[in-house]
Write a structure and sequence with these properties.
With about 100 residues, the protein is mainly alpha-helical. It has one domain. The protein is built from six helices and no strands. The chain has helices spanning about 5-10, 15-25, 30-40, 50-60, 70-80, 90-95. Helix 3 (about 30-40) packs across helix 5 and helix 4 (about 50-60) packs antiparallel against helix 5. The longest helix has 14 residues, at about 30-40. The protein is globular and about 45 Å long.
Amino acid sequence: MTDTRPAEVIAADPKGLIRESYAMDGITLDECRSILIDWALSLPLSADTLAATQRLLAHHGAGQSAHPMTQLLTLALAQGARPVRRGGRAGRREGD
């Protein structure tokens, strides 16, 4: 089976976890939450998670505002816009 998603969407969801969540009938919010965590953990550390979330929401979430994954991706974008305190060595070295 050939993947017909645009390259930037494939790069944002290389395992197809988010795509599959939209294909599942009757998927619950809790199931989507678990899939979203698996998706986030599978991304490389260098990935721009916010940009990937935006791409996936634009591609899969369009016209599906009631889908639980759309709700979670929207929430993730809102949460991701807030500054995050960095702890440990990384937090102490930012001013260097």
